[in-house]
Write a structure and sequence with these properties.
The structure holds 2 protein chains of 2 kinds.
Chain A: H1 8-30, H2 39-65, H3 68-91, H4 103-106, H5 110-141
Helix pairs in contact in A: 1-2, 2-5, 3-5
Chain B: H1 2-25, H2 29-53, H3 57-83
Classes of the chains: A mainly alpha, B mainly alpha.
């Protein structure tokens, strides 16, 4: 069971750092096709920010921000984005995840459609990785037993 | 200049091995934590030196920032684990 810390330094540092960590994670996801990084790495950093919140503020407060149900929904939602874009390309008469055909929907040149398509896929991967990272830490810290809402 | 960075990186690598010895065989848990944190910091510097060698610092600085961040969170976790015996 993760308990909340009453150390004022730790709480304040976490409160100040978490928004910057999340901005940086979004930068890594969005900039993935120009520099190192991408969906998985950005998702790990995004998950690390939630893990930092869970470590410093305890399980009870963290469940308000990101509960187990929400994490499960997010993890399936990311896979839905990924496979949805892939299936959209399949429906438009091309191979699975062949983003060039998306230019018919997005009304841009095929090269730009490829860039936007891979950006969408990376956003999906990032959401899934973030939720699964949080789920893994959540399950380990609660010892595998899901705590019921006790209020 | 490149060979200077190269030798600097190799020296840091030797220091990483010394820290690894302290992390594996170190008496007590606190020595191990200190060794592992020092390895994280040295890895960050080695990554930046690799960026200088390949002339692509702006790429490697992203990775090193992530490394510093994860190292910070790991240290907090271990410290919290030790504060209350066996409880994060």
């Amino acid at each position: 069971m993760t308990r909340a810390t009453d150390n004022i330094i730790l709480r304040t540092v976490a409160r100040v750092m978490i928004p910057f960590i999340q901005i940086y994670a979004l930068y890594v996801i969005m900039h993935g096709h120009h520099s190192p990084g991408g969906g998985f790495q950005g998702g790990v950093i995004l998950g690390a920010s939630f893990i930092l919140y869970l470590l410093t503020h305890g399980l009870k407060e963290a469940k308000i921000r990101m509960s187990e149900i929400k994490a499960g929904l997010f993890s399936s939602f990311g896979v839905l984005i990924y496979s949805g874009i892939g299936l959209l390309c399949l429906i438009l008469g091309s191979n699975y995840l062949d983003y060039g055909k998306l230019s018919a929907i997005l009304k841009v040149a095929p090269a730009q459609a490829r860039s936007l398509g891979i950006l969408g896929v990376e956003i999906g991967v990032g959401i899934t990785v973030m939720a699964v990272m949080f789920c893994v830490f959540f399950d380990i810290s609660t010892g595998g037993e899901l705590p019921e809402d006790e209020e | 200049m490149d060979s200077f960075f190269l030798w600097l990186g190799m020296g840091l690598f030797a220091l990483v091995l010394l820290c690894l010895y302290r992390g594996v065989f170190g008496p007590g848990v606190l020595n191990r934590i200190a060794g592992i944190c020092a390895i994280g910091t040295k890895t960050l510097v080695i990554l930046l030196l690799m960026g200088f060698i390949y002339n692509r610092v702006e790429m490697f600085i992203d990775i090193s920032m992530v490394y510093a961040l994860l190292n910070f969170i790991g240290t907090i976790t271990v410290a919290k684990y030790l504060e209350m015996k066996g409880e994060v």
